[in-house]
Structure formats: structure tokens, C-alpha cells
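User
Please review the sequence:
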Amino acid sequence: MQSIVSDSYSVHFDKMAFEVLNSHLASHNYSTIFVLVDENTHELCLPQFMSEIAGEYTFEIIEIESGEINKTIETCVGVWEALSELGADRKSLMINLGGGVLTDLGGFVASTFKRGIHFINVPTTLLSMVDASVGGKTGVDLGPLKNQIGVINQPEMVLIVSEFLETLNERQITSGFAEMLKHGLIGDSDYWESLKEVRSINELKNHIFPSVEFKNKVVLQDPTEQNIRKILNYGHTLGHAIESYFLENVNKETLLHGEAIAIGMITEGYLSYRITGLSHEQLEDIKTTFLKYYKKIEFTEKDITAILELLKYDKKNSHGNINFVLLNRIGKAQIDVTISPDLFKQAFAYYME
């Protein structure tokens, strides 16, 4: 499979990924190579990854705890301290082997340690392959508030090894599928229709490349998210608030990112129907498709009020306005739409009806 070229790095796939990695390591005189893992990728992915390394290098393994709840500045401090204790210098390399939480955090740690060391991302979940793999966004959460602290900084390369998907459970796969469906909704109605026909993980693997390619094309047009790149946030304004609320509420089961964003795409689909011209037929298509893959969540009036309160922290806000990405139709998105707050509860009512 061919590689996808971004502005300053490339995304390489499967066998080609390890060939490029080994060539890169051979041509760079790294003092130490650090591999950041969590307890899952340490056990399930690291042995296979290390078996593909050709050559003798000094490796150090740093393990963090998995999960969004650990995507914090405190975890970063622990990794920074480990790097210092293990003698990392500005000629060190960090390889982030894990899902989106780990690659986001690891990229941020590498970008700030000694004002920046090289890093390579090896996403191991479907979500991180099709979303976090492209764009250079790094960072951590501030309490329950998603991705409030971070920088945009590009890796040396991204390596996508589809075999790592075999280590995931069905819920993790389905979470990543939400971001792929989003790519169809905001940019390619034919892709949306083709994804609706996916029946197995092997079929899904064939769609990873077009999802990465689509996101890369968007990012290349707008690396720092001033304009067109904002379309990638469809479903994420309400979705992130929902994810944050379930993360901080001990009485609620934590939602995976894709599960929360799926709800966001239905509710923001309703807003699109009311504001930007999405047809009722396409709105129903969006709702029916997502509810086929994601179980419906019940929201009380209290839940909705608390979720809407979190909207004021959204990163896309400016000048006191909450900015949404909405759909004109499936395959075409519109950025920077402000919404009358009285529609928010109607959107949740539509989701639950």
C-alpha cells in the first residue's frame, strides 16, 4: 500500500511501515529510543513491534496507565521525570505505541521535553489510526475538559499496522468507526454510503486508507485550524461535552470517544436540519445509521443542563460564541455556525424520541 504524504512527514502502512522505520533509525544517530506504551499495548503490541526492528539500538520502555482519565498533565510530569531519570537528551527519539490518548499525550511530552525531541506515532486503535494519526494535534485534558492543553507539532512519521486491530474488542472498533462515518458526512456522501455496508473488521481495514487520506487533504489546506479544518469537528461540540460529563460523573458509565461523538453527530444533525438545510430524510438516515451501531443513552433534564453548561469551554468558541460545524447535506459541511440555545434541548429530545 502506498504511503500518504503530509506537509512534513508521511503515513506508512503495514509492511512498508517497518521498512521505513528501520531505514529512519539507521540514518539517524539517536542517543536513546524511548517507547511509550500503556499496560495493554505493552502486553499486546510491543512484542510484535520490537520483533520488526532491524539493528542494535538502546531502547527504554515507559509505561503509563490507559484511559482518557489518565490523559492529564500529571501523567505528563511522570513521563518527563522518567525521561530525565533515564538520561534522555535532545537527540533522543520517542515512539508512541498506543491509541489516541497515548499518541496525543506522548506527542505533547516529546514536543515540550527539552523544547522538543523527535517522535513517531504508531496508532494501535482504529480511532487513533483514522483520527489522531494525521494533523499533529497533541495535548491533554484539563480535569474533565477535553484537550484544553496542547500544541500542534508534527511527528517524524506515522506507522499504521492494521494487525494491531486484532488486539481490540468490538466496542473499541465501533468507537473508531464513528470518526470514519464522520468523514463521509462532512466530505463524501459516497464514502458514507459505502461505510454503511461494512460488515466485518476485514472490510473495515480497506477503509482506513481513504479515511486517513481524506483527513490529510483537509489538514494540508489548513494546518492550524483557521478555516476548512474546522469541519473535522462535526459532532464534537456536543459530543465532547457529553464525553466530558460522563467522564467526570461517577454515577455514569464512561463513554468512549466515538460513542459520545456518535450522539454529537445525531444531535448536531438535528441542528443542521433546523439551521443549515439538511433534509429530514438525511437526518433520519444519520440517526438510523448511528443507532444501528451505538446503543441509545438516556439523558435526564439534569444531565442535559450539565452537558450544555460544559459548552462554554469548547476550544472552537470565540468572542463568547459557541461555534458549531453543521451539515448542508450529507457530504457538505458548514463551519462557524452559532445556534440559539433553545434548540439544544430540542436536539436531545430528537435523539431520545
